[in-house]
Amino acid sequence: MNGGRITSEEKSTLSQYIAIAIAVLLTAVAIYFFLLAQKEKRETTGFDPNRPVPSDAVIRGRLTPEQYSIVRQNGSETPFQNAYWNNERAGIYVDLITGEPLFTSLDKYNSDLGIPAFSKPISYDNLVEKPDNSDGMQRIEVRAKRSDAHLGYLEGDPKSPTGRRYSIYSGALRFVSKEEMEAQGYKGYLTLLEKK
Fold first, then answer.
1. How confident is the model at residue 133 (pLDDT cuts 50, 70, 90)?
2. Range 56-193 classified under CATH 3.40.50.1100
3. What is the pLDDT of residues 11-67, one digit of tens each?
4. pTM check: above 0.70
5. CB burial class (10 A; 0-12, 13-18, 19+) of residue 41?
6. Domain boundaries, the chain
7. Residue 105, exposed/middle/buried by CB under 10 A (0-12, 13-18, 19+)?
8. DSSP per-residue codes, 129-146
9. Tell me, what DSSP letter sits at residue 6?
10. Gap between the Cα atoms of 43 and 54, Å rounded
């Protein structure tokens, strides 16, 4: 310094230090948001039985109002106007909340009701079937065991190979195509899609 004044050389050096500090700070912020996005992706794709079920506040924030109404308020959806009623692609249908595999495309069939219908689940242990006498009806409600999500109803159906029809709302499910299963952490379930 010359008599308390900053020279142009010192200004240049100071500017370089400030620019480096800003670059380091921006890089750190970018890395933080990248890691945060990866964490969110891990929490919403694939199934990890050790991952806790999200809180109701988190579920409400992740789902659309219609999805939330179905899984947490026992709502329904409009027949023939939902995501999977006529989906014919190969893959699995997973619990919208936990990602737990529930049904395969091989067990899906057209029940003419306008919502997905399955003859059986991947595992009966993943579902809870309980009597539902609401609205003056006698039926069996189907819920996901782990997340307690309302999925739909179980009824008899002579068109079903098992004589049972799981009428499950699209709004309670997420479809994972066969092509995406390995990338989304469902590689172990690919054998379920082999023709019987």
1. confident
2. no
3. 778 888 888 989 888 888 888 877 776 665 555 556 788 889 999 999 999 999 999
4. yes
5. exposed
6. 1-44, 56-193
7. buried
8. EEEE-GGG--EEEEEETT
9. P
10. 9
